[in-house]
Amino acid sequence: MSFTVTIEDGPRFEAQAGETLLQAARRAGVALPHECGWGSCGSCKVTLVAGETELMFANAPAISPRDARSHRILACQSMARSDVTIRLSPAAAPPLALPSREQRAELIGVEELAPEIRRFTFRPEGGADFLPGQYAILHLAPGLRRAYSMCNLPDGTHLQIISKRYAGGAGSTALAAMTPGTSLTIEAPFGNCTLKPRPGRKIFVAGGTGISPILALARQAAQEGVDFEAPVDVIYCARRAADLAAGDELAAAVNQIPGARYHPVLEEDPEGRAALTGRAPEAIAAMEFDPAAVEFYVAGPPVMVNAVKAQLKEAGVPITRVHYDSFG
What we know:
Blueprint: E1 2-7, E2 12-16, H1 21-27, E3 45-50, E4 53-55, H2 65-69, E5 72-74, E6 78-80, E7 84-87, E8 101-114, E9 117-124, E10 135-141, E11 144-149, E12 159-164, H3 170-176, E13 183-190, E14 201-207, H4 211-223, E15 232-238, H5 247-255, E16 260-266, E17 276-277, H6 280-285, E18 294-300, H7 302-315, E19 322-326
Parallel strand pairs: 1-7, 14-15, 14-18, 15-16, 16-17, 18-19
Antiparallel strand pairs: 1-2, 3-5, 3-7, 4-6, 8-9, 8-13, 9-12, 10-11, 10-13
């Protein structure tokens, strides 16, 4: 079954049952504004003029009661349930530097990094184009999609992610069960938590598997020889030393960035191996920085990222200087 999607004063395209308006448009070669692909940024909001749609992710952060009253929907989360007509916003977001696309990918490698934490290497058909700090959406099963940031530098061929298996987590469990040779659909790239190699104080904060994008950003700065002309601190938070997945790789990249310092931070440190103990907010509080002249790159679970954002807001750091990814 398929439905016709009409853009007011624009083209028409067909949407198959079970695919979002954004997926259908991309398949038809129609460019709809979008950024995150995950329902958190709101860049893909369109007005539903006629017809019916169904939400894939009913609790998407960018959805508000006001949007419902004004018939504003998220193209990345809305599936057609009839022929529909939509209207694009006059202030639609500009196209992404690298347009996202949907492609099949083969899992070619799985590596154990820490307890229940693995690195997965995929080879997408047609190549892998992304920027360090961006992420992909993996279709792990019918109706089961999850976002994962890339940890490798772009090589045009491979895409690597780091994931932890959580008890009861449908997405992480499905991914952990995959073996090399498995094929799945990937949408990529998404996200704008990318490196801004301008001079000035930088603080990078990774929590748990938030190591993935922070590792990619550190590797980019090291490879490109970026000198930020100011102190750079890279904080990696985990519960125990054994949970610092790819910590040695992050430390090696940081050591190649002029003026950068690596800080492993542990909640539990009976052997006194970490220079700092506690959680991300405590680690940030131990840093010296000018709120008006510092940039933060933050990646980790939503609870951590939200706590850090609140802390930085209270400290007077402008939101435009806080770049973050938050996945649960």
